[in-house]
Amino acid sequence: MYLLSSEQLAHLLDKSALGNSCLPLIEGQILDIGAGCGSITDRYLAFLRQEHLPNGSSTQVFATEVSRNMVRVLRRKPGYEVFLTGSIAEHHCPPVWGDVAKLGLISCLNVLDRCLQPWTLLSDIRRLSLKHSCCPILIGVVLPFSQFLEAHVKHGSNASCWKWQCSKAMPERITYPGVGSHLLSFEKHAGSFARFVLKKAGLRVARFARVPYISAGDAVSPLYVLTTAIYVVQPTTDEELGEMDRVKVGKVQDNSAKGH
Ligand SMILES: C[S@@+](CC[C@H](N)C(=O)[O-])C[C@H]1O[C@@H](n2cnc3c(N)ncnc32)[C@H](O)[C@@H]1O
Fold it and tell me: Could you report how far apart the first and last alpha carbons of the chain are, in Å?
């Protein structure tokens, strides 16, 4: 799996945006949601300022996965605390909500189109970032956006912890004008995703990149290359959301007043 070079990550996460000579900003621990085999997670560690880890903590990375096989791989890595779960809500992932953890980055790369409840996940990501002083969030999505649930997520199986959850949880659909269409440009999709998904979830885009997502292919195509949109986002506070709602309502009232 290849998504981002260390230089690209440094550039995206650089606090001062003054080029790659500046140190990136990750101060604290990292939560990587749907970390897969951890090949991208490992790259984050290069940016972690160890002195900003909570006192005495050996955990550098919290990772979540619904695949038991991936969890097994991740648990072999030093400094990783891994959760077999499809949710980051308080009762599924208690340590990241506790007062001891100090998150400096939340990452969710190429997961929203593969998970059962992407809206719930986005909402929990926003709440968690707010709890950790609005730490930055890295969201990656392959565009055109197209939801696909792998069998172990959809039906639950021994390969996942998701069996029990499927009986209770309703799948959530992300949709917006033109979703999945190969007739629209990447830019159009990237804009729509930001507007109809991220903004709606209370996340504000700070930076953006277009990167290739390369994985091992088959006998015919030795490599699969997809295009991923990477967004660095920050949570809109509850006050800002309230203000935006008031403006919207104000506009509607204004327009209806004009109509009369
Ligand atoms: C396409 S892979 C991406 C892996 C890695 N983040 C990357 O960018 O290479 C999607 C991963 O998300 C996992 N996944 C799906 N739904 C999830 C959820 N709700 N929470 C955590 N992991 C999930 C899948 O098991 C799979 O390993």
Answer: 59
